[in-house]
Design brief:
Length: 338
């Protein structure tokens, strides 16, 4: 099926927010840099919706690509996801852990021993891949008995129970079901057009989201049961509306489509480079907040893109980014060479 440009641009937008969020979080955790008054509130605001937007888009793409039926059977679908999420998850989690162990000055230290427990305990932002895989598994298996709406309702309810009673043993997948609402919102949505507003309605949607988050963060109710789902839904709707307006500008669309092409490599590798440039600037005595933000964003995007381009040239190296796609190309190349 033809690619959905709005979906691609939304993925790029959320990816840029993830990089930006990690850059400002890293600067804050590092210390030694004078932060503007809005730095902490801005970080808290971004965190309320940038990952939920990624989850929502994953759920929506799952729906428009035929759900598990796109791979004929549920087990073929699960194996496909295990391959394409599992290889990048383990490769880059191991790489990240080893780099953090060897290089002093990073915000969070890691031990090589943690590699043995990656199957159950993710490191850094790679938790997203593990969580996404388990959500795919849950939706594929539960769809045998329930509609997507009911799966989302039940998992969201379990998430609320887990937040209230985190020690209940049968809710050990609490971190997984906590993302079911955002993922399920995408799975249950038939078209993104329903969330695209323009004119006065667009301004009202975006303003309402900003007002809601200001209220939630100021009162300290952000992230509470039910409130968190409202926050995430508001952020997702406002983001879809905003990006649907941005892509009407040719330059903005071109930029977002470029980022979208390298979305996955940027997600996987950006923290390695943002941490590296942050450490180097700190050692060089550079403590200006805006220079740190600009350098972090530039290197956090450019370095993964450059590495992805090099991996594309080799062919076989791309297997750590796009396993099944790369294996298919290598198989076709081998067949053509016979």
């Amino acid at each position: 099926m033809a690619r959905n440009k709005l979906v691609d641009c939304l993925k790029a937008y959320s990816c840029l927010l993830v990089v930006f969020g990690h850059v400002i979080l890293g600067i804050q955790n590092m210390g030694g840099v004078a932060l503007p008054f809005f730095a902490s509130p801005l970080k808290d605001f971004i965190w309320t919706f940038h990952v939920p937007l990624f989850m929502f888009l994953s759920g929506f793409v799952y729906r428009i690509t035929g759900e598990w039926r796109g791979k004929k059977t549920r087990w073929r679908f699960i194996l496909h996801k295990a391959l394409n999420l599992g290889i990048p998850y383990f490769v880059f989690s191991i790489l990240y852990t080893l780099i953090n162990q060897m290089i002093p000055g990073t915000n969070f230290s890691h031990s090589a021993q943690e590699i043995l427990y990656l199957w159950k305990t993710p490191v850094a932002h790679y938790w997203f891949l593990r969580t996404l895989f388990l959500l795919f598994v849950l939706y594929a298996l539960l769809s045998r008995f329930l509609s997507n709406v009911w799966i989302t309702v039940i998992l969201t309810a379990l998430s609320g129970v887990h937040m209230l009673f985190p020690d209940l043993p049968f809710l050990s997948l609490g971190n997984i079901v906590s993302w079911a609402f955002a993922f399920g919102f995408g799975v249950c949505l038939s078209s993104l057009d329903k969330l695209c507003f323009s004119g006065v309605k667009a301004a009202a949607v975006i303003a309402a989201h900003l007002g809601l988050e200001a209220l939630c963060l100021f009162t300290g109710i952000s992230g509470l049961p039910v409130i968190v789902e409202i926050e995430r839904a508001s952020g997702i709707i406002a983001s879809v509306t905003l990006v649907s307006l941005l892509v009407k500008n040719a330059f903005a669309e071109k930029l977002l489509m470029f980022v979208s092409r390298y979305n996955f490599p940027i997600y996987l590798m950006h923290t390695i480079f943002t941490a590296g440039v942050r450490i180097m600037m700190q050692k060089a005595g550079i403590h200006n907040y805006w220079i740190h933000v600009a350098a972090g964003m530039l290197v956090g995007i450019a370095a993964p893109v450059l590495i992805a381009k090099i991996m594309e040239k080799t062919g076989w190296m791309n297997i750590v980014l796009y396993p099944s796609q790369t294996l298919k190309k290598l198989k076709q190349k081998a067949a053509a060479a016979r």
